[in-house]
Amino acid sequence: MNIEKLSEKIVYMDENLTKRILYNESRILNFVLNFRPGQGVPPHNHEESDLLIHVLVGQGQMGVDGTNHEITQGDVIHCKGSEVFSLTNTGDKDMTCFVVLAPNPSPVYSIEV
Rounded to whole angstroms, how far apart are CA atoms 86 and 98? Predict the structure, then answer.
């Protein structure tokens, strides 16, 4: 068993979003994305890995295969690996998302920023 403190992973930077890894195991990758207003991730997919995003704080917009969706605190989103998505904080306050990728995709996704 391993316990991580989520509160220690919520770190915002004015220059760019932050990504803090919680668990990087062979079958699962879990991290927290932290966005200041206007920050986001460009469209991409996660190969064969499903994506779960739980919006912990804030609100934003998530594009999935060209369709934009408003998301807000408490929303949980599931995308299949082949779906192309983007995520942007469109609110006026910080946004934090708890993210799970399963199975764990290529190592490029497990780099902290």
Answer: 15
Domains and CATH numbers, the chain: 18-105 (2.60.120.10)
Residues whose CB falls within 8 Å of the CB of residue 56, separated by 6 or more in sequence, listed in order: 10, 32, 73, 96, 97, 98
**Residue 100: pLDDT band with limits 50, 70, 90:** very high
Residue 62 structure tokens = 């998530």
The model's pTM is: 0.95
pLDDT at site 77: 98
83 secondary structure, DSSP code: S
Helices (runs of H) and strands (runs of E) counted in the chain = 0, 9
- Cα–Cα distance for residue pair 41/50, rounded to 1 Å: 17
Percent of the chain predicted with pLDDT > 70? 100
**Of the candidates 12, 91, 105, 38, which has an alpha carbon nearest to the alpha carbon of residue 75?**
91
